[in-house]
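dumping this here so i dont lose it
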């Protein structure tokens, strides 16, 4: 099996480039450069801004400058096949469904020995069309990566023809060390977002969408505010439900204590200001926001959906409640707000170690390298 300059060539394939930097960049670029050469391919490039990888000097290919690939496109397959052959790709790592479809077919034609498909969330195989395509395409990949055990189970349930051994929970990851470098005090962090230093802050970070269950969080907060007069609730993020949620908050007696901060780049400082992080989702994959809060020494509450129980180990590393239950959520918020300092520190310490052991970039990078090596050796032999 041919390698290029003595290195295994890994191609990362996405269906579209719109600008920005992928959250998994430290894992992607962290694999052993002495052993692996990484290149980057996008089926479509819809931004005039060069990709982060291109700016870092990595080979980057844009198969098409079209806005969208609405139908199956043989020209795209042909051109992608040419890049894979030209670069002598040994491992093709495809992100999301469209890249996996095009990638699996082109890799077969180009003779790429190892192909991975990476699933980043739940319910990605709802329609019969998607299920049919999966049956044809996923047989041609070596492994399917899932961001967490809940996503892995979802992939297997939606695609019963797959063997359990073929679908691997790779997990999600964060820059764990980043949350050790916040120098401002909790009091200053609160004042920086316009709150009093002695406020008790419940907070959440994420898109303002239906799946986050934020209407239940507002109801829960309204129930407990009278018992915790210093309590405030902050939302960080934007989304199509913002006006609706702001209206709901305005209709409570505590509108002045509910704050929508919009998208923020200073997430580490925001987390410093939060006393309790609450994830009220009604559907979820393996949420990075929860991992970030745990790493930032913030006690957490989450709902029993998706990968949240997986992260919190059924309540060992944070509080768990049923989704769509504002009474239970309010009770958990009250309980965690009133635990002793000793209990709080014990919970924080255990949660941070959980993230360091299972969800740091370094942990996931090592896991990924082991899979790359194992699959490549299996095919080579």
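and the seq i came up w/
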């Amino acid at each position: 099996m041919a390698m290029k300059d003595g290195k295994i060539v890994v191609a990362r394939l996405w269906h579209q480039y719109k600008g920005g930097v992928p959250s998994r960049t430290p894992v992607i670029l962290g694999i052993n450069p002495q052993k692996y050469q990484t290149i980057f391919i996008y089926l479509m490039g819809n931004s005039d801004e060069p990709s982060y990888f291109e700016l870092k000097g990595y080979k980057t290919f844009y198969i098409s400058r079209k806005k969208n690939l609405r139908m199956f496109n043989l020209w795209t397959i042909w051109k992608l096949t040419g890049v894979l052959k030209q670069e002598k790709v040994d491992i093709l790592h495809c992100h999301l469904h469209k890249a996996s479809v095009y990638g699996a077919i082109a890799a077969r034609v180009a003779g790429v020995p190892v192909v991975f498909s990476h699933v980043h969330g739940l319910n990605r195989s709802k329609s019969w069309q998607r299920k049919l395509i999966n049956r044809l395409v996923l047989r041609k990949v070596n492994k399917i990566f899932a961001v967490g055990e809940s996503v892995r189970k979802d992939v297997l349930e939606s695609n019963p023809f797959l063997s359990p051994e073929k679908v691997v929970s790779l997990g999600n990851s964060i820059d764990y060390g980043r949350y050790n470098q916040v120098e401002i005090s909790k009091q200053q962090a609160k004042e920086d977002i316009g709150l009093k230093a002695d406020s008790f802050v419940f907070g959440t970070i994420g898109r303002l969408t239906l799946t986050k269950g934020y209407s239940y969080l507002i109801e829960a907060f309204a129930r407990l505010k009278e018992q915790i007069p210093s309590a405030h609730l902050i939302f960080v993020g934007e989304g199509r439900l913002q006006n609706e949620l702001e209206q709901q908050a305005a209709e409570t007696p505590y509108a002045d204590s509910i704050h929508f901060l919009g998208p923020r780049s200073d997430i580490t400082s925001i987390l410093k200001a939060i006393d309790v992080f609450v994830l009220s989702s009604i559907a979820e994959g393996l949420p990075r926001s929860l991992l970030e809060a745990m790493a930032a020494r913030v006690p957490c509450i989450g709902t029993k959906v998706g990968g949240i129980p997986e992260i919190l180990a059924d309540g060992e590393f944070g509080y768990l409640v049923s989704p769509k239950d504002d009474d239970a959520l309010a009770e958990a918020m009250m309980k965690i707000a009133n635990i002793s300092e000793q209990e709080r520190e014990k919970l924080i310490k255990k949660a941070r170690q959980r993230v360091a052991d299972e969800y740091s970039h370094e942990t996931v990078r090592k896991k990924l390298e082991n899979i790359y090596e194992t699959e490549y050796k299996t095919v080579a032999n």
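The chain has two domains: 8-173+361-380, 176-358.
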